[in-house]
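[agent] plan:
  1. take the single chain provided in the ticket
  2. run structure prediction with default settings
  3. attach structure tokens to the ticket
  4. add a short note for the reviewer (M.T.)
[agent] executing step 1
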Amino acid sequence: MAKFCLKIFLMAFATISFADTCNIPTEAALTISQVNSAAQQKDFEALQLLMTADFTWSFGGDASATQAITEWKTKPDALKQLIQVTSQACVINTDNTVECPGNAVLGYRAGFKQSNFGWRMYYFVQGD
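[agent] step 2 finished; step 3 output follows
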């Protein structure tokens, strides 16, 4: 897979976000950009298509993209956080997954991995 260092410029609602995607696969960077755009537009259908079915969105055992979307529709702060993390520098991990941002530690973070359908977001969580 091709790797590159690029600033992705995302336009939505007359604002510009910059996602530093140095050294991550091109296809992963595209998916991150699409997630950011869908979250900004509150396009839940597009967002769900960019998620794995067994998507993890809380540490309480919740692992469903459908459940996450239902929750996010009633809690817009989650989308704001998703926009923020997908606008920051992302890193590739040793297991070839990508995490945004790369220095989240206990904050909000989103994970992306290669699937049968291309790169997909497989978690968006906060905490440990």
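[agent] step 4 note for reviewer: The chain has a mean pLDDT of 82.
[agent] ticket updated
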